[in-house]
């Protein structure tokens, strides 16, 4: 980047030049008089205005973009006080470029949004001119495209990685994040010494997102009011917005307005000035000539400029992951964790910046907008730690709620069998239930360690380590706010577990690394020491992640991708300009750019594991579960089981234990699977097969009936398989009615029992089977497609008569009604709710499905 002094003197020269041109143009305009002054004079005037425009908008700022591509080098025409937006055409044969003042002066507001292709084209032309003219890296752009899902800015996508123009935001949440960043930006520049005033933020709004409300619009207006002196400028399409509540919005403060008409546009007066001559008084008439807006620049030209900017920006040497790892020659796992864990997270200039998980800085929180590199930062930290600390020194739990699958590389897969030996449990696309199960496990470990500490009479982990070789434990939770979502018992439990770990973890070597891209949704982030976040001293703000810092700390405003503000004092700021020992801005590497090194390191670490090491326990939210893979089922098949039980699926806990429903002799020990989903047939089939496996061959019998088409195939397959081990009878509805009154021990397995027809199941027979059957070893396993039919057949006594229920796609309200208690359940694919009335337990499970459903 050119030195500040050179740039400043270049800017001053251009400014002097521009002032001279304005001075020269004024008498020309003054002499011109009203447009009726005669055609030759107007042609002459247009000629002189063309010449003035050439001086005011040199290079990219005024070039014809559709003609031969400009050869002008990038970054050569700043400051861009004026920029061309089109061609004014007072007469058929008299034209001159239409310029508006923008950077350093005000804003641009177009009354149509980018749904009008001319507006979209103009925004792209404007953006191209400004990006190409500005010294590389000095102009940062934030883009909003509510109606167009971001397509307006698609040609500029290559700039995202360079940090110049992150992917456009398209919803109201994104708009608010961008506004917050712009507000921080204006605050930052207001506090800055003049030297810091070297970058400009341009906010381009192609269209406002749906649900933008009055408060958002007021924020845009306030930014427009304060922006020009503070390095913030706006180009807003679709302003004034059409009022939803009937109150019209005023023009955007300090802006040049452009009214888009059928075949041309009208340009209003620039902020603080008039186009009309001051005779006798200037009047606000705007530019007295229709303007053809600049057309969409050729894609090839945009590509060339973006590539040029990327190349220029990457001229600064990029950090590589290997810069954060121990030197190749060093042994793996050479560090001890008694006093803490430490790893470099990036470089501040040439100096490596190291962070620690220790007594002083026990927990970290990372924030950034989506796409800002949150996953990249976490991956760097995990590789940095796993190269330095052996599994005996460090164990990690990884929970990913972001849906990004960033931790998938740490678990074995078909393509790569390696895993991270320090990882104990990994939740890929987690459920909250799984997250809470992991936190419970950590909390239990914390309690165990506190007892050990008491016994040993010590209060610090480092002292405990002198007696016991315990590893430090790190729990990384990507998108942790997902755990706190919802106002239910699970969210309450998650909060209290996180609080307990945040408060007490430091003394017992248990650490949290929390990350999120939507921290603005988390209340109490700055609630002081009494809040859980008050116990998280290390704050890492990536681009758009200023929320992790104290509200008055604006250090993260305008960070490009690949950089982060690292603060070890809970996000606290301090006087700008003063050296802040607790806060550094670092560059960090993109691990994706170094895939080969990453894979090599993972294999090295994996190969160094102990021969007894087992892979981490993995919970993949999307993974289906099959009875044949279940350890409890296998044990039953091998004769290692005691009591008969129906196996329904896998519980969402750390070991993924089998969800079972024991079938003992208590009245009501029957299982009803409820919901229209055809998975009901799968669950019933698994339940029946697993029950059969619990009995020695030829010691029980099954009566199987399928009353619905969706049950025919599973019923036939079940019958075929069970016949090999037990006595099996397949019956139709008549046979079923007879079997209901039977007394022999065994199992009635009914697919689609609701289809027996209203009133066909004799109530007394059914009730006596439900009550007395288990005592005689007779159980009913059934799938009902509708909860209502089930409740009707059982005459309102359903929950008394049938102790086990599995709910599939049944709404939470219906479940609560049936169970007579409020239940927090939202039906979703690959999940079911298992209720065992006798055990007083209701759990979310992953139900077993038939192997044919494997996806
Ligand atoms: N240090 C870096 N320098 C340059 N580019 C980077 C850097 N870190 C990450 N990136 C790039 O930024 C993009 C987003 O990175 P990453 O997936 O880590 O972000 P994220 O915040 O987790 O995003 P998401 O919300 O999509 O999960 C990727 O294309 C990545 O290659």
UniProtKB/TrEMBL annotation:
The keyword ATP-binding applies. The keyword Nucleotide-binding applies. GO terms for molecular function: ATP binding; DNA binding. Gene3D superfamilies: P-loop containing nucleotide triphosphate hydrolases. Keywords: ATP-binding, Nucleotide-binding. It comes from the Bacteria. Residues 350-547 form the FtsK domain. This is FtsK/SpoIIIE family protein. ATP binds at residues 368-375.
């Amino acid at each position: 980047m050119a030195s500040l002094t050179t740039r400043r003197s270049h800017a001053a020269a251009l400014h002097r030049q521009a002032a001279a041109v304005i001075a020269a143009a004024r008498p020309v305009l003054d002499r011109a008089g009203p447009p009726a002054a005669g055609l030759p004079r107007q042609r002459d005037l247009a000629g002189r205005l063309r010449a003035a425009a050439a001086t005011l908008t040199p290079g990219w700022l005024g070039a014809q973009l559709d003609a031969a591509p400009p050869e002008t080098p990038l970054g050569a025409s700043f400051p861009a006080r004026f920029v061309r937006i089109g061609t004014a055409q007072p007469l058929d044969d008299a034209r001159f470029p239409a310029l508006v003042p923008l950077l350093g002066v005000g804003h641009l507001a177009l009354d149509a949004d980018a749904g009008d292709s001319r507006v979209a084209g103009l925004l792209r032309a404007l953006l191209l001119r400004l990006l190409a003219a500005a010294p590389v890296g000095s102009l940062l752009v934030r883009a909003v495209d509510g109606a167009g899902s971001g397509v307006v800015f698609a040609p500029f996508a290559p700039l995202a990685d360079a940090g110049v123009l992150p992917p456009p935001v398209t919803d109201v949440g994104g708009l608010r994040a961008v506004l917050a960043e712009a507000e921080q930006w204006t605050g930052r520049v207001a506090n800055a010494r003049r030297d810091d005033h070297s970058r400009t933020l341009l906010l381009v709004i192609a269209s406002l997102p749906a649900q933008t409300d009055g408060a958002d619009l007021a924020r845009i207006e306030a930014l427009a009011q304060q922006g020009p002196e503070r390095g913030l400028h706006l180009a807003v399409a679709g302003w004034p917005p059409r009022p939803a509540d009937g109150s019209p919005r005023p023009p955007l403060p300090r802006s040049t307005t452009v009214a888009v008409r059928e075949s041309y546009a009208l340009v209003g007066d620039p902020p603080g000035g008039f186009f009309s001559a001051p005779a006798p008084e200037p009047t606000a008439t705007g530019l007295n000539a229709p303007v053809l807006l600049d057309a969409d620049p050729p894609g090839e030209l945009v590509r060339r400029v973006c590539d040029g900017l990327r190349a220029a920006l990457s001229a600064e040497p990029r950090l590589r992951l290997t810069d954060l790892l121990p030197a190749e020659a060093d042994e793996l796992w050479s560090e001890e964790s008694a006093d803490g864990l430490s790893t470099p997270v990036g470089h501040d200039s040439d100096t490596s910046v190291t962070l620690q998980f220790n007594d002083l800085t026990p927990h970290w929180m990372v924030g950034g907008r989506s796409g800002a590199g949150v996953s990249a930062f976490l991956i760097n930290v995990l590789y940095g730690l796993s190269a330095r600390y052996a599994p005996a020194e460090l164990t990690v739990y990884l929970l990913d709620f972001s849906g990004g699958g960033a931790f998938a590389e740490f678990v074995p897969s078909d393509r790569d069998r390696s895993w991270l030996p320090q990882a104990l449990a990994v939740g890929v696309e987690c459920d909250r239930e799984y997250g809470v199960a992991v936190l419970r496990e950590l909390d239990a470990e914390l309690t165990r360690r506190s007892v050990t500490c008491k016994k040993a009479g010590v209060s610090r982990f480092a002292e405990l380590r002198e007696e016991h070789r315990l590893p430090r434990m790190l729990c990384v939770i990507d998108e942790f706010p997902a755990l706190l979502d919802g106002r239910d018992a699970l969210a309450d439990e998650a909060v209290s577990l996180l609080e307990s770990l945040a408060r007490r973890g430091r003394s017992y070597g248990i650490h949290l690394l929390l990350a999120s891209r939507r921290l603005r949704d988390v209340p109490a982030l700055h609630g002081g020491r009494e809040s859980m976040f008050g116990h998280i001293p290390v704050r890492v703000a990536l681009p758009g992640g200023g929320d992790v810092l104290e509200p008055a700390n604006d250090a993260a405003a305008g960070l490009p991708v690949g950089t982060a503000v690292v603060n070890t004092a809970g996000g606290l700021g301090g006087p700008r300009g003063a050296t802040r020992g607790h806060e550094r801005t670092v560059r960090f590497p993109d691990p994706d750019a170094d895939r080969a090194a990453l894979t090599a390191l993972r294999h090295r670490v994996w190969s160094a594991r102990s021969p007894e090491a087992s892979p981490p326990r993995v919970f993949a939210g999307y993974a289906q579960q099959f009875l044949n893979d279940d350890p409890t089922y296998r044990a039953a098949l091998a004769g290692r089981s005691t009591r008969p039980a129906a196996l329904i699926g896998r519980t969402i806990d750390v070991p993924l234990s089998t969800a079972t429903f024991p079938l003992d002799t208590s009245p009501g020990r029957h299982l009803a699977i409820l919901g229209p989903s055809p998975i009901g047939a799968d669950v019933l089939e698994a339940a029946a097969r697993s029950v059969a496996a619990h009995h020695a061959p030829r010691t029980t019998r099954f009566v199987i009936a399928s009353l619905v088409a969706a049950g025919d195939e599973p019923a036939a397959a079940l019958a075929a398989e069970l016949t090999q081990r037990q006595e099996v009878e397949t019956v139709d509805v008549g046979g079923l009615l007879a079997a209901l009154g039977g007394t022999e021990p065994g199992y009635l397995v009914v697919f689609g029992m609701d289809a027996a027809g209203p009133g066909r199941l004799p109530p007394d027979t059914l009730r006596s089977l439900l009550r007395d059957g288990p005592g005689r070893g007779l159980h009913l396993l059934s799938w009902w497609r509708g909860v209502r039919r089930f409740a009707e057949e059982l005459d309102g006594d359903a929950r008394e008569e049938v102790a086990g229920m599995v709910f599939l796609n049944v709404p939470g309200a219906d479940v609560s009604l049936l169970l007579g208690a409020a239940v927090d359940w939202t039906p979703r694919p690959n999940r079911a709710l298992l209720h065992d009335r006798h055990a007083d337990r209701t759990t979310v499970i992953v139900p077993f499905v038939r192997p044919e459903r494997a996806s």
